[in-house]
Design a protein that fits this description.
It is a single chain. This protein is of the alpha/beta class. The protein has a single domain (14-123), classed as 3-Layer(aba) Sandwich (Rossmann fold). Helices cover 44% and strands 13% of the residues. The chain has helices at 14-29, 37-40, 46-60, 78-83, 97-106, 120-123, and strands at residues 68-72, 89-94, 112-116. The chain has a 3-stranded parallel β-sheet with strand order 1-2-3. Helix 4 (78-83) links the parallel strand 1 and strand 2 (89-94). Helix 1 (14-29) runs parallel beside helix 5 (97-106). The longest helix has 16 residues, at 14-29. The radius of gyration is 15 Å and the shape is globular.
Length: 124
Amino acid sequence: METRIYSKTLTIQYDDVKSFYDKRAKEFSSGLLPKYTCTLLNDTDSHYAEKWHDFEVNTIKPYLNCGKILDIGCGIGRWADVLANECISYCGIDFSKTMIEAAKQRFSQKNINFFNIRFKIFLN
């Protein structure tokens, strides 16, 4: 099975991508997917997403000023897990309303906010 596409131009269908992530968020909220698998993907190795998350945090976090954070494409609030207790404010936005709903269920701190924003204009 070929997993990468080279030298081909593909049209990405906004509604298909959104439906995919909405489905993943519902599976996560129902307990069917491990915490980071719903956004980082890799259903064949449930530990891969957690390892990748740890790699990103260890690589990127030292460069962050944890004042005010804007997380574009926040999904279920993966970076909020890391920064919630360290930042002044965290604002996560995502095009999947279902991901935002899952994120809002996970956090109750006043400095953490999530918003559903359509990104369709950027994909056309």
